[in-house]
């Protein structure tokens, strides 16, 4: 039986704001590889970033557009539309007119495990961040049923409605909603990754002195290796 669920619980807006300022690759390291989508899914525009709750779409036929068209009805401001198109290469799972519909409803971004039409129009006119496997010049139909706002698989990761979706040029990370507060807090607790590479591990070395120490030392890598009995340094 196909199912369309009209609404779902979304993360607190403050949590989304906090998450948006993090390095997403560090979040990916926290949640682990099972929650990092296939690296073939990339932003059409390198500078695009997304952060928001997942609104999920799963057409029965991976290249049919009907469920994707309809899903704009259920978009709330800040949502990220996540489409399970099973990596379909022979037909687009999305086009510029649908992207425009998401944008009208306040969508914050789109992640599609498939290929899209009219990439240039999406980049230059719509401007809503879109992550996908690439572009293709053909679409097929808009006739088949499917599911909206149920658990799906996108880029090899199980995505549930309301899960936190983070994406930048490195790829897309999924944070299960029930763990989002914990994960975001843990990454915040280690500081912004923009500073992490130059932060003393014990917090006691003055910054100027610390930055004069070679990276292999200040990162702690040398000390870790020296403690490994199975490595002989000659």
Structure in a nutshell:
The chain has 234 residues and is α/β, with parallel strands linked by helices.
Can you describe what's shown?
The protein is of the alpha/beta class and 234 residues long. The chain has 2 domains: 13-189, Glucose Oxidase, domain 1 (3-Layer(bba) Sandwich); 197-226, no CATH class. Helices cover 29% and strands 23% of the residues. It is built from 10 helices and 11 strands. The strands form 2 sheets. Strands 1, 2, 3, 4, 5, 6, 7, 10 and 11 form a 9-stranded mixed sheet that branches. A two-stranded antiparallel sheet has the order 8-9. Helix 2 (24-31) packs across helix 6 (180-189) and helix 4 packs parallel to helix 5 (119-126). The longest helix is centred in the C-terminal third of the chain and has 10 residues, at 180-189. It is elongated, with a radius of gyration of 20 Å.
CA gyration radius, whole angstroms: 20 Å
CATH architecture of the largest domain: 3-Layer(bba) Sandwich
User: Would you report the number of β strands?
Assistant: 11
* CATH H-tier superfamily of the largest domain: Ribonuclease E inhibitor RraA/RraA-like
Largest sheet: 9 strands, mixed
Order of helices and strands: HHEEHEHEHEEEEEEEHHHHH
CATH secondary-structure class of the largest domain: Alpha Beta
Strand content: 15-25%
Would you tell me the overall average pLDDT?
90
- Globally, the shape reads elongated
The CATH topology annotation of the largest domain reads as Glucose Oxidase, domain 1
């Amino acid at each position: 039986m196909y199912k369309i669920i009209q609404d779902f619980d979304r993360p607190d807006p403050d949590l989304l704001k906090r998450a948006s300022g993090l390095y997403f690759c560090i979040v990916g390291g926290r949640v682990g590889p099972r929650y990092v989508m296939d690296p073939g899914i990339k932003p059409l525009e390198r500078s695009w970033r997304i952060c928001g709750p997942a609104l999920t779409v799963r057409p029965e036929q991976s290249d049919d557009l009907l469920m994707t068209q309809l899903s704009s009805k259920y978009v709330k401001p800040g949502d990220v539309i996540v489409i399970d198109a099973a990596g379909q290469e022979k037909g687009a799972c999305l086009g510029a007119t649908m992207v425009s519909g998401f944008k009208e409803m306040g969508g914050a971004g789109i992640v599609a495990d498939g290929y899209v039409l009219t990439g240039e129009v999406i980049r230059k006119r719509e401007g809503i961040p879109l992550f996908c496997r690439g572009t293709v010049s053909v679409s097929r139909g808009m006739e088949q049923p499917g599911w909206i706002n149920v658990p799906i698989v996108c880029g090899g990761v199980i995505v549930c409605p309301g899960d936190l979706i983070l994406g930048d040029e490195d790829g897309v990370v999924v944070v299960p909603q029930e763990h989002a507060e914990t994960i975001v807090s843990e990454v915040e607790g280690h500081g912004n990754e923009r500073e992490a590479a130059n932060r003393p591990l014990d917090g006691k070395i003055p910054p100027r002195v610390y930055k004069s120490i070679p990276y292999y030392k200040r990162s702690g890598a040398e000390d870790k290796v020296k403690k490994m009995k199975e490595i002989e340094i000659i």
